[in-house]
Design a protein that fits this description.
alpha/beta; Lipopolysaccharide heptosyltransferase 1; globular; membrane; 15% strand; six-stranded parallel beta sheet; 2 domains; Rossmann fold
């Protein structure tokens, strides 16, 4: 096998959590080239993967919103780039019309996608020459790894490997001698995923009392207003300026702790191996959650608002030094 194309078009969190597929493929087939097709809005995230050889992108979202001629021409040019090579396999781990169209336009006799019941849009099935097996009973992220393994004939082994390398920031996000930084990602894509502002205030005050410098990123004007409301009640808290995706990623990489709702940047924090607490209010933690011993944890059941105490317990857990626990266990055993 010489060349494989992965199709995962959007969005930030989903793409981040799909990246371990690349390490799996390269472990199974040393020397294989892995290309990735994504929406232009998220192409830079894929470019951070040390295992991806070529990133193919087009302004699909932007064209859908604005219908500009320049974007149409960019999409047409991207099709020519997409067809520049013949692939041994195309693996669509997205499963909607736009990803299926990309898979269909690329050059390969082996285009593998989900079974009809697992597709995001059932009409996407037109593009595939083969199907993954039934979706296994696991979270979405491990399921993508298993599906890719089924398509390419290997067994998934070990924990997810993200292999991210961010570009060096022009300047350090925080002063070298500053207190450890805790970022609170309070903003969400949907109102029903929000955690109450009074809860954020209480957690922010607790973190400030523990010596953290609390920072609040935002994306829209409404989110900035909420960030200002939280910061006004948390000693020393800072509302960050509006930043690009890359600058937010660099900021996360400089943090000691990230607490946030089920959003792409919190998934990125987990992938960057930061101490991370993800709060689930209206989405499923068993399907979309994160977990790494003493580093990342998900709280909530996806049907109700998690308590402040649950969040503080989770912060205690990810901030615990596992070496200290082993030392205590050893002392107790002695």
């Amino acid at each position: 096998m010489k060349r494989v194309l992965i199709v995962k078009v959007t969005s930030l969190g989903d793409i981040v959590q799909a990246l371990p597929v690349v390490a799996d493929i390269k472990r199974a087939y040393p020397g294989v080239q892995v290309d990735w097709a994504a929406d232009e809005a998220f192409a830079e995230v894929v470019q951070w993967s040390k295992g991806v050889d070529r990133v193919l992108c087009a302004p699909l979202r932007r064209f859908k919103k604005a219908r500009r001629w320049a974007d149409f021409k960019a999409i047409a040019a991207s099709i020519a780039e997409l067809r520049a090579y013949r692939y041994d396999f195309i693996v669509d781990i997205h499963g909607v019309y736009k990803s299926a169209i990309i898979a269909f336009l690329a050059r390969s006799s082996q285009r593998i996608g989900y079974q009809s019941q697992d597709l995001g849009e059932r009409g996407a099935a037109f593009a595939y020459t083969g199907r993954f097996g039934p979706r296994p009973p696991c979270n979405a992220w491990h399921g993508m790894r298993i599906s890719a393994g089924q398509a390419l004939g290997y067994e998934v082994e070990g924990p997810a490997i993200y292999n991210l390398r961010l570009p060096d920031p022009a300047a350090a996000p925080f002063a070298p001698d500053s207190a450890p930084v805790a970022a609170l990602f309070h903003a969400t894509s949907k109102d029903d995923k929000k955690w109450p502002i009074p809860h954020w205030v209480t957690v922010g005050r607790e973190l400030a009392g523990r010596g953290f410098q609390v920072v609040l990123p935002w994306g829209s004007e409404g989110e900035r207003a909420e960030a200002q409301e939280i910061a006004s009640q948390v000693p020393g808290a800072t509302v960050l300026p509006k930043m690009s995706v890359t600058k937010i990623a660099q900021m996360i990489d400089a943090c000691a702790l990230v607490v946030g709702t089920d959003t792409g940047f919190v998934h990125l924090s987990h992938a960057l191996q930061k101490r991370t607490v993800m709060i689930f209010v209206a989405t499923s933690p068993s399907h979309c959650g994160i977990e790494a011993p003493f580093r990342s944890i998900s709280i909530g059941d996806g049907r109700s608002v998690p308590s402040i105490s649950a969040a503080l317990d989770a912060i205690d857990y990810v901030c615990t030094d596992p070496n200290a626990i082993e030392t205590e266990r050893g002392a107790a055993a002695a």
